[in-house]
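From the pipeline queue, job 12 of 40. The input is one protein chain; the requested action is below.

Action: predict structure.
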Amino acid sequence: MARDIKPHIGIYGKRNNGKSSLINALTQQEIAIVSETPGTTTDPVKKSYEIFGIGPCIFIDTAGIDDAGELGEKRIQKTKESLRHIDLAILVIAQNEFGKSEEDLISSFIHHHIPFIVVHNKSDLMPLNPQKELEIQNYSHTQVIDFSTLHPVNRDVLIEAMRLKIPPTAYQFKGLLGDILEKDDIALLITPIDSEAPDGRMILPQVQMIRDTLDNDGVAIVLKETEVETFLKKTGIKPKIAITDSQIFGRANEMIPRGIWLTSFSIVLARQKGDFAKYLGGTPAIDQLQNGDKILILESCNHQVSCEDIGRFKIPLWLKKYTGKELDIKLIPGLEPIPGNIAEYALVIQCGGCVVTSKQLHNRLKPAIDAGVPVSNYGLAIAWMHGIFNRATEMFR
């Protein structure tokens, strides 16, 4: 669910309050199914749209928070789970009704640090009562907008409120190498082509690094690991930084001369999107692992598994070899909920998160951080186990 780096706007509220109609009114397209039958929207559904001043974004149309029955409880749970991916929430009410369900949603918004707006829908049938508006404002400390999806005359007012409320960090791209590269600096990108590499194309982190180098008026040189040493000897070129796929970190450390910064795609992404200070502080916990400790590996995407898979095979193998301990290692792909008690884990290792938003990545790790569980990142953990942690992070310290 919600694997997209665009900002996510979630629509929440009771059944039949017009959540799907609101999305159609905002986008001026019939992109959400609308029905008078309560509970038409079941699982959260994503809709892409571009908002002036924000750019491309994803609307999340959720099931009613008052859904009924055993299946309804499961739908409500899915709605609650979607909060971990949201950059802005819109709480939709109608008929001047605002009670415990709405208060619980607002508490959840606050808990997940989600800015939100309250929309009183169906104002053509029953306008917002001024006293009720004041009551909601006093409780929620946010704007309440009276709205009609049938006659959306103040659509621009709602869109402007959304634009002002959504944090700029949700849609403004934070550069990868802007504080590292200067004009004409050379970045050497080491990109193995193995069974994990998709046929005929490059993986997203590699493409992102090329584009960011160009955006900073730098020069990107892309090589397979088998060509690096020959290239450096023949050309005499000295890159400012070499960025490698984490799985060949040890070999890259031997090939790249001292005096050239060396890091990995995963570490650069971790710095851009994740809680880098927590990663730096949590990685040394690898040295404290004991027999029987539970390790959780989080991989934000789903892909076909091979014997060269870094999260499923290589990192577990390196962890056991480095520590000499019998470890209980579990991997969870995608953004599904983490089962069990997170406090039972001795370490959590997160991938770079190239396919998710910064908000999603932070919320993914928040339970572990709140529980005091050390967190690391693919690249940082691999650098630590290969004895090159300091070299791999010196340019960022």
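Job complete. The longest strand covers residues 45-51.
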